[in-house]
Structures are given as structure tokens and as C-alpha cells.
Amino acid sequence: xxxxxxxxxxxxxxxxxxxxxxxxxxxxxxxxxxxxxxxxxxxxxxxxxxxxxxxxxxxxxxxxxxxxxxxxxxxxxxxxxxxxxxxxxxxxxxxxxxxxxxxxxxxxxxxxxxxxxxxxxxxxxxxxxxxxxxxxxxxxxxxxxxxxxxxxxxxxxxxxxxxxxxxxxxxxxxxxxxxxxxxxxxxxxxxxxxxxxxxxxxxxxxxxxxxxxxxxxxxxxxxxxxxxxxxxxxxxxxxxxxxxxxxxxxxxxxxxxxxxxxxxxxxxxxxxxxxxxxxxxxxxxxxxxxxxxxxxxx
Length: 298
Prior knowledge:
The chain is an alpha/beta fold. The protein has helices at about 25-30, 40-45, 100-110, 130-145, 165-170, 190-195, 250-265, 265-285, 285-295; strands at about 10, 30-35, 50, 55, 65, 90-95, 120-125, 155, 175-180, 200-205, 215, 220, 220-225, 225-230, 245-250.
């Protein structure tokens, strides 16, 4: 509802191809919308609704994009994690349908089954409790056990970590790259933080994270091919993700190939990662982002 003479809505938007019809009226009740990525803005602007009389409706409210700022890493960041493998991929995700963790784990095992390579999974389902940890651990164990014998390793990190500890995890000497099989991101904060830590990124070539994975027009990450398809009926969330919306389904072959490519040609991707981190440090510095936010509101 309108709460003042002048109202600004602030939202992460949605990670699918369209917004829900339930969002149309609230979006028209504010004078301006601020969202966090070009992708999120375009989803708002490109969604067209048709009423029973055949009339088409769109969000007409002005929409501006303000990205998140780069957070300065702790100078003495450390994360005490003993890893037997010298090369480890890292993923930081909530264990839920959108993050597509099952495909990521199975693809990793299938690609590196007989090699001394690790995958570190920092995750939870809903909170940082012991009950939540047991649920995630059991779900992960079922996937791993179904894949049979293997030499590659999978490590679960669960629980609340400070920014300093997260910096230490991203920058751990044995963590070499960040990987995600996400169906879609409004922005993709863990991917953004991984870039700041100069980690090569393997990600689906679609949605919000593309805003910070390029320098000029050159994409500086390992791009996973995908197919845009309707979400599974079990993922429908009335009022948020309707049955007719779609998101990206990563190609299993492409996901495996990009992980292999980063592993084999690490020097090239590490060079990209360093350039991208330096580029983002300037493009998304706090002073620039905060000034833009303030200017839009005022």
C-alpha cells in the first residue's frame, strides 16, 4: 500500500522469466522501483499480462538498477579447513530447488570420479541449526552413495560464518574455483564475493550474475550452456513463481566440460579472475553505489 506522498519500492525481483500477475498492482502503487540487476529490471519490464477481455498490461513504473557494492576483504581472513586435495571447487548456495545442487554434485562426481579433486559445499536449507545440518547431510549422502565408488572428495560446511570467516573460505589456498549450477539469480551474492576473491567462476550463462562477470563485452567466466524451460510443477510458488514461468536448465555435458576446462587450463581462467576482480573493485566501489542509490531516491 502507499505509505507516504512519495514511495520507492526496493526488491531483488525474481529469478525466472516473468514476474507473477500478483506483482502487477503493487508495482503500480509505488512511484519508482529500485532493483539489483539489469536482468531483474528486464524481467519486470518485459512481462506482459493479458486480462479476460484481451487487454494487455505491463509494469509502467520507472525502474532503476543499483548493484551491490564490493565489500573489502578482511586483511587477516583465515578459515581453518584441512583439505587433502590440492584442487577444490567451492559452491556457496542454499540447498533448495533453484540452486540445482543435485545436478552440481552428480556432475562433479561423474567428471572427477577417479581423481584427487574436491568439492566444498557451504550450504543450509533454512537455518544454521543441528537439525538443518542433519537434513542437508542426509540429502547429500543419498546423492553420493548413489554414485558408487569414487576417489574425488566432497566436503560439507554448515553453520553461521562471519564475513571474516567467509573471506577465509573464498581465499583458502586449496580453493581454486567457484562453481554453480543455478537455475537463475536475481544478483548472485556468493558469485560476486567469489569474483572479489579472484576465484575463476563456472556458472550458467543467464540471469543476474552476468552483470558482474564481464569486462566491456567480454564474458570473463566459464559459461555453462543451458535451455530455458518451464519450471517443474513441484517448484510452483503461488504469487511468486507461477506455473508458466521458466528458468535455465544447465546442460550436464557443458557443466562437466567447463569444470574440466578450468581444472586443466587453470592459468588462463585465473588470469581472467584477477582482471575481473580489479575491474569490479572500481565499478562497484561503495562510494559509487551509495551515491547512485541516494541520487535515485532524492
